[in-house]
Amino acid sequence: MRITDLLNTAGIRLHAAPAGKDEAIDLLVSLQDRAGRLTDRERYKADILAREAMSSTAIGNGIAVPHAKSAAVKEAGLAAVTVPGGVDYGAPDGLPSSLFFMIAAPREGGDVHLEMLSRLMVMLMDEDFCQKLLAAEDAETFLSLIDAQERSKYPDEPSAAPAEDTGRLRVLAVTACPTGIAHTYMAAEALEKKGRELNIGVKAETQGSGGAKNILTREEIAGCDGIIIAADKNVDLARFDGKPLLRVPVSDGINRPGELIGKITGGQAPVYRHDGAAAAEDAGNESAGRRLYKHLMNGVSHMLPFVIGGGIIMALSFLLDSGAAGTAAFGSSWVLPAFFNRAGNLAFSFMVPILSAFIAQSIADRPGLMVGFVGGSLAASGATFAYFADPAVPIVPAGFLGGLLAGFAGGWFMKWLRRICDRLPASLEGLKPILIYPVAGLLFIGAFMCAVNPFVGMLNNALTGGLNSMGGSSALLLGALVAGMQATDMGGPINKAAYVFGPASIAMAEGGFSPVMAAVMAGGMVPPLAIALATIFFKDRFTADERKSGPVNFIMGLSFITEGAIPFAASDPLHVLPSCIAGSAAAGALSMAFGCASPAPHGGLFVFPVIRNPLGYAAAVLIGAVAGMFLLGLLKKKKV
After folding, report:
1. 132 lies in which domain range?
2. Torsion angle of alpha carbons 521, 523, 527, 530, nearest 10°?
3. Does residue 284 surpass a pLDDT of 70?
């Protein structure tokens, strides 16, 4: 299969003049539709817009490659548009984009097309070729230029001889982007092309959606001068232990290849140590808030399996032991619920240590893991110097807040310690991971947490008392706030911030039943349910494909999977988001008003039986979903 098998004259528009980015996307989508590759034009456009919301697909030098994997694509294909006047597409170099290729890839299916698409990305790095495409007068000429360039760079019978290796210096790279279609290959080609210009041997491994290609061998890694990791997702770095290494965004691999290669060959890259030293990230522009968020989310993502699994198992123990409700033995009055309660409690007890451990690990790599885990355990235990001096002194656990503090403090301390230890003689290198880091880190975090636990514990107690005593309008406002946040970005930072507050409130709530957690879960269930109802009662507001996929949201909503609403929100955010936020806020406020409380941090419909006032809770969710449905019907425009 060649690129011309994916692009035909029906998918090409030359010398167009769209007024802006939105019109350019509409034009490209219409070409894909005209070429017969789409089953639902609006659904495909929604997936394109969702990808653009992550970051612009303009790559600079006047080129933009919008792309998406979509269930609305029945076969892989390309659409092309030239815009001599250019369009502001948010390119990293600030220049307008004039050459567009839109990639349509089926959500399911083989990966043969990815190899063809990667060829196009490589070919576009040739500026003369791009100028010829822009000057083409008709679609046939445009296609012939692409075919000739492809046959030149990728002849039907490739040479068996290895690529020339200049030998003087060698740089290896790994490129990866979240979708793994365009930027991955563009960065790889830019680095390899710049290496040829500089007479420096460069090899780039691409980790695209079709899997890793051009994989670096052990021999190549051992013999190279350094490695560039140009990636916007996690890459396993263990194999690069002991080598100079730079980590940068994938866009830097495209826009700054010469600078990056120069840092490797000039000895400016730090040596990566997989036993704990973090590789330098030459990102530069990342804000402090963004870094804090990434560290926090690393802890939260590792914590959630313990919270969700343990919380639901504990909830099942209460369900199985309903006969003992109101007694001290509730949840463990006989063998089976006692087993569930013990197992769930044990998993749930790891919540704070795991959170702290992986926050610290995100900051300081492996040396931070143990320090964070111990710090989180000390926060959960409430250990203080006063208690060690007199065991009669009451212990006040620092809880979730103490765990956050332990993770960040332990991580930053270990990062500082690593820098100090870098000044030690090379002969002591082996002592750092097995002696210096663990002993110094443990002493620091032990002393630090014992010193701050009393103060964080008092704050924790104040918050617990406030939550337990909250009533009236303040409780309704809190419920509306945390529930509305669930629908604001549906899985994004705001949603996660509200959700994290929920499990933390379970640990603080009286008896382990949290009104806040109930409100959070209600808010997360409403958006998919509201959309599912709207696709039934307001059919003319949705496309045919949206109506078909709408009922699936009943399952997702009842399972507390808010992300089911994302495709609908991405296609019409100005109308869908306000409707869902209002419905979620109503459900959260009503959950508080009805006195509902949840001991489980997840589960949706399946944990309704263990929620206080389950009928009231079901009513709150239903009323919120119906309110969201009516708002969707009122705000959305008719489609048919």
Report:
1. 3-153
2. 100
3. no
Supply φ then ψ for residue 207, to 5 degrees: -110, 80
Report whether pLDDT(75) > 90.
no
Q: Is residue 159 part of a domain?
A: no
Is residue 279 a contact partner of residue 247, using CB atoms and an 8 Å limit?
Answer: yes
Catalytic residue from among 130, 177, 224, 596? 177
Greatest mean pLDDT range, 52-61, 104-113, 276-285, 318-327: 52-61
Single out the residue in 258, 281, 304 at which a domain terminates: 281
**Which residue has 């290198």 as its token pair?**
429
| pTM of the full structure | 0.52
67 among known catalytic residues: yes
Whether 537 contacts 629, CB under 8 Å? yes
Q: How many domains does the chain have?
A: 4
Find the helix or strand (DSSP H, E) in which 480 lies: helix 472-488
Same domain, residue pair 185 and 59:
no
Q: Could you read off the pLDDT of 584-620 as tens digits, one per residue?
A: 999 999 999 999 998 888 778 878 888 889 999 999 9
Length of the chain: 640
Q: Where are the beta strands (DSSP E) in 192-293?
A: 201-208, 211-213, 226-231, 245-248, 280-281
Number of CB atoms found within 10 A of residue 636's CB:
19
C-alpha distance across the termini of the chain, in Å: 39
CA distances from 341 to 260, 314, 346, 438 (A): 54, 5, 8, 34
Name the token pair of 31: 């070409």
Among 172, 375, 361, residue whose Cα is nearest residue 278:
361
Predicted local confidence at residue 322, as pLDDT: 73
**Same domain? 605 vs 569:** yes
